[in-house]
Amino acid sequence: MTLAATAAHSGFLSPTGVEIAFVLVGIATLGAALVTVTTKQLVHAALWLVVALGGLAVEYLLLTAEFIAWVQVLIYVGSVVVLLLFGLMLTKAPIGRSPDADSGNRWAALAVAAASAGALVWVVVDAFRTTWIDLDGPARGSTEATGSFLFRHWVLPFEALSVLLLAALVGAIVLSRKRGKEQS
Amino acid sequence: MHLAYPAVLAALLFCTGLYGVLARRNAILVLMSVELMLNAVNLNLVAFDVWLRDTLHAGQALALFTIAIAAAEIGIGLAIVLAVYRNRGSSDVDRLRDTAETDAAEALPDDEYGTEDQATAAAGKAKKAEATA
Amino acid sequence: MTTTTLAVLVPLLPFLGAAAGLLLGPPVARHRPETGLRALLFAPGFVRPLAVLPTLGAAVLAAVVAARQGGGRPIDAATQLTPTGSVPIDLALHLDGFAVLVAVLVGLVASCVQIYSTAYLRDDPRYPSYAALVSLFTSAMLLVVYSGDLMVLLVGWEIMGICSYFLVGHYWETPEARAASLKAFLVTKLGDVPFLIGLFALAADTGTFRITGILGAVANGGLDHPTLIALLLLAGVAGKSAQFPLHTWLPDAMAGPTPVSALIHAATMVAAGIYFVARLLPVFAESGAALVVLAVMAAITMIGSGLAALAQDDIKRVLAYSTIGQLGYMAGALAVGDRGAAVFHLLSHGAFKAVLFLAAGVVIHAAGTNSLAAMSRMGGLTKRIPDAYWTMTVALLALAAIPPFAGFFSKEAVLVAAEHTALGERHIAPSAAGWTVLVAGLLAAVLTAAYATRLWLLAFRGRGAEAPDHGRQPVAMTAVLWILAVPTIAFGLTVGAITDWFDGHALTPTVTTAVLSTGVGLVGGLVTYGAWRHTSALAARTSVGTVVAHPDAEPALIEAQAMTAHTAAYGADGDAPDPADPGRLLLGPLHHHAAAGFHLDALYTALFVRPVRAAASLVRFLDREVVDTYVRGSGAVARGLGAAVRRAQTGNVQTYLSALLAGSLVLAIAAVVFANVNAGS
């Protein structure tokens, strides 16, 4: 970022509309994430996870990555969370408040998480406090642009990924088969 | 847009997920926390891609790949959790202590879980029999 | 074959026999069916020939070598195996008249002992290893006798030491034998340490280990420290030849089988020390002080052992003390510088002492006890064992130096040499040494005659219950007695013929000493007889706990039982509370001390054994309580740390992950901080 570009934008005290929206959605997302990891109701955790992931999709949109935003909604909100809910049901997770949702490790976990949050935020703010993203111009992540770079430059990793997904599918099936049937 | 906003948000989300991984007892909740961490990384990837205006769009491509891998991971992870639940009658992470250093490490699993639930004890025995077969 | 080749074969034959016996010998042959070569060799008929024939062959060859050498110039042959640096070590032979004659004696006695052992240990499961060790022992002694190099001589010397340890401990089941074998080994080794240093000093002074070289250097006055070397060597000689103050192992060594006593402690091993001094006499003659020390040592040994022999109850211990006394005569002859007399007495003593020991073995077998007190209450023993009776009588007469038996002539030779030195007719040794040896020798002659008479009277003139009938003694045991009785009777008469072998100077007795010593000997014998007449009346009235072993057992077994039972019955190895003992009357208040060997063992116990034990227990304390504390402490610390680390292994994955992430966080923060600090500076 050149000094001219920096000067062209305003500072913290005069945020643009996109920034305000990003911060607000970000607060909501963070709140939802916090509730997800702290709530004592397991199903609620999954639902709050939907909120957090949806908030992230909005953030992607604000960062002009629209294709990834929709993929986020489709894959995460649509399938991953549904899978998690199924998992909760299959493991007979208690509905309602379960007092032992957190293990005895929570204070150590809190300390580690808080310390790493402090360190990371400090480092990140220290490094990027004078850096601005130029969101003008054509969208970076439009579907057209995404398709073009994905199948022009990344086609080989893309295909390898499909093999990985297949392997994961087979693995999941093998793991979840019932042992008793296998023996009989 | 100030780059610090997405970067700080990603850092905080990552640490939230970290807390969840370390503090949650239910394995599925741990998996959810892992998802949060992955998404924090995704946010970083997208933000820096937009900032750097990379011609290859490496950030967005990697974000897509990460989403795909996350999907695969959640599938495998849930399968493992289900298998553990079926064998042990519990998906609590802090009760899976077979690797603990005890004087009677051999006797621990059957003694501890066998008294809890007869059905799962039978399942555990079946698994043990299979292991020895 | 040349004489040298024959002489090499002499020690080699028993060695090969011993090697074959030890390598192929079956440890427990009768419990296991043997196959192949071992079965062929160790079928019952083959063990004994393998033991007897090599020794017998060596004896014949030694006789041939002696005849060929003929007392002429010494035969020397040497071959150097490998250069060893400063002082060369050769495989050398030095065959002079002494060497060939002693070799004949060793071969003869060893052959007789081997033949005797075939019957004496006929049922012993350890007979093969026993016979092999006897062969090895014989081989080592022959090596000592023939060797012309002091290092090679030392090899034979030490092999004898270790063999005597094994052979004395043959009955290792009995505590007496275990203690005796250890004592024999340790005491002789105690002398061997200064002996080895003396050998090195000698080689350093003369620049060679060859005996001829050393004698040549001595003749040229090449010896710088004669007294020091002679005294160091004398320590080894005193240990090996059982001279005061290192004699205490010999009486205890009677815990071994009787043939072993005959071989080791009469004719060979103890003779090695005397023989060594005889070989290197010019070295000792360089130092008058050493000769006086040797004379005093010999005098104390002669008189002390005579008194002790008079008080012993165990027949073999009497003989052991008499051996010490006769060795004292030999040492006395050397002290007055007459090696011819010393070796002459060594030869005749070897013959008659072998007879005495082997006959004592027969007596113990027949009587079932080794206690003279018990034998004196046993009638008819002479009828049971006439061979042993007659040969032992002859040998005792020889021991008491009654003409015309061998002991008379050899002892005369010693006394003549002492007299000549005392009166100044010989100038090799100081006259003080001569007087010491002469007076002590005459006193010891009285004592010798006294204990010989006492032994004979108590053993063969006992009155009381009939001796148990064990049937006829084996021919192998009685025949060798007669074989050895021949030199006992006749060897002294050849004194005129064998001067060629003894440096050519005459050993014939002179009238003065002959009359004197025979007279005192007769006095000693008659006084003892009188005392016995006085006390034998008591014998009928007081009974002692007699010990009679099972009549059908093999002789060795009976002896072992008798030894154990003797201690059990009388509470001591050598003493018996027998008021009918003439020795008790003769010695008076001295008897108690003499029976205990003048308390030398107790003195050594107080002087050496107790301090060593105290030091050992101190070391044990330091090791157990001090050193081990640190060892245990380090172990406990390691265990504690392990337990602490183990506590962290809870099995909870989340704990592990927390610790892992906390650690990486610390590292990351540290990296960032240091990067900032470095960037800022």
TrEMBL record, chain A:
The lineage of its organism: Bacteria, Bacillati, Actinomycetota, Actinomycetes, Kitasatosporales. It catalyses: a quinone + NADH + 5 H(+)(in) = a quinol + NAD(+) + 4 H(+)(out). It holds the Pfam family Oxidored_q3. NDH-1 shuttles electrons from NADH, via FMN and iron-sulfur (Fe-S) centers, to quinones in the respiratory chain. Couples the redox reaction to proton translocation (for every two electrons transferred, four hydrogen ions are translocated across the cytoplasmic membrane), and thus conserves the redox energy in a proton gradient. This is NADH-quinone oxidoreductase subunit J. Keywords: Cell membrane, Membrane, NAD, Quinone, Transmembrane, Transmembrane helix. Belongs to the complex I subunit 6 family. It comes from Streptomyces gelaticus. The chain crosses the membrane at residues 20-38, 45-63, 69-95, 107-125, 154-175. Its main location: membrane. It is a multi-pass membrane protein. It is found in: Cell membrane. It comes from the Bacteria. The keyword Membrane applies. Its EC number is 7.1.1.-.
From TrEMBL, chain B:
The keyword NAD applies. Its EC number is 7.1.1.-. PANTHER family: NADH-UBIQUINONE OXIDOREDUCTASE CHAIN 4L, NADH-UBIQUINONE OXIDOREDUCTASE SUBUNIT ND4L. Keywords: Cell membrane, Membrane, NAD, Quinone, Translocase, Transmembrane, Transmembrane helix, Transport. Residues 104-115 have a biased composition (Acidic residues). Coiled coil: none annotated. The gene is nuoK1. NDH-1 shuttles electrons from NADH, via FMN and iron-sulfur (Fe-S) centers, to quinones in the respiratory chain. The immediate electron acceptor for the enzyme in this species is believed to be a menaquinone. Couples the redox reaction to proton translocation (for every two electrons transferred, four hydrogen ions are translocated across the cytoplasmic membrane), and thus conserves the redox energy in a proton gradient. This is NADH-quinone oxidoreductase subunit K. Pfam families: Oxidored_q2 (PF00420).
TrEMBL record, chain C:
Gene3D superfamilies: 1.20.5.2700. Residues 83-130 form the NADH-Ubiquinone oxidoreductase (complex I) chain 5 N-terminal domain. The chain crosses the membrane at residues 6-25, 46-67, 98-117, 129-146, 152-172, 193-216, 228-250, 262-282, 288-311, 318-336, 342-367, 388-408, 428-453, 474-499, 511-532, 656-677. It comes from the Bacteria. Residues 147-418 form the NADH:quinone oxidoreductase/Mrp antiporter transmembrane domain. It holds the Pfam family Proton_antipo_N. It is found in: Endomembrane system; Membrane. InterPro entries: NADHpl_OxRdtase_5_subgr, ND/Mrp_TM, NU5C-like, Proton_antipo_N. Keywords: Membrane, Transmembrane, Transmembrane helix. The keyword Membrane applies. It is a multi-pass membrane protein. This is NADH dehydrogenase. The lineage of its organism: Bacteria, Bacillati, Actinomycetota, Actinomycetes, Kitasatosporales.
